[in-house]
Amino acid sequence: MDRIEKIHELLQKMPGDNFLRHALALEYIKIGKDDEAKVLFEAILNDTPGYTGSYYHLGKLLERMGETQNAIACYEKGMEESKKANEQHTYNELQAAYEDLVY
Predict the structure, then answer these.
(1) pLDDT of residue 92
(2) Rounded to an integer, what distance in angstroms lies between the CA atom of residue 34 and that of residue 103?
(3) b/e per residue, 4-28, with b = 16+ CB within 10 A?
(4) Which candidate, 91, 100, 36, places its Cα nearest to that of 65?
(5) What pLDDT is recorded for position 90?
(6) What pLDDT, in 10s, does the model give residues 50-75?
(7) What stretch of H or E contains 5?
(8) What is the reported pLDDT for 1?
(9) Residues 24 and 38: beta-carbon distance below 8 Å
(10) Could you give the angle at the alpha carbon of 12 between the alpha carbons of 11 and 17, nearest 5°?
């Protein structure tokens, strides 16, 4: 059974599990299913804005898709949420991605 099938199987048992949804989105990126990955990342962040690890990956995906303004907004929101959660490492990664894109 491949990783995507295994994650789908686990999601049937735990459909709202953000870790699994995030992992599935990353697997989709690996095989070029960017639209499916985007939908998953957006669902995670709409449901749980404090799931800060998804902001970086969604931002990078949006950059690749040519959605620069959406990527900037994603990084900004991620920095805000990371600051609230006192997650300095995540904040620093988002800030670096933001600055690389903006400056």
Answers:
(1) 98
(2) 25
(3) eeebeeeeeeeeeebebbbbbbbbb
(4) 36
(5) 97
(6) 999 999 999 999 999 999 999 999 99
(7) helix 3-13
(8) 62
(9) no
(10) 35
CATH of the domain at 40: 1.25.40.10
**Interatomic CA distance for residues 3 and 76, integer angstroms:** 31
| Number of separate domains in the chain | 1
Of residues 20 and 1, which shows the higher confidence score? 20
Hey, what are 67's tokens?
């959605």
Structure tokens at 46: 């709409």
Give CB contacts under 8 A, 24+ apart, made by 54-60: 54/18, 54/22, 54/25, 55/81, 55/82, 55/90, 55/94, 56/90, 56/93, 56/94, 56/97, 57/22, 57/25, 57/26, 57/29, 59/94, 59/97, 59/98, 60/97
In the block, tokens 């995670």 appear at 44
Q: What is the pTM of this model?
A: 0.94
**pLDDT tens per residue across span 81-98:** 999 999 999 999 999 999
Domain containing 30 equals 3-102
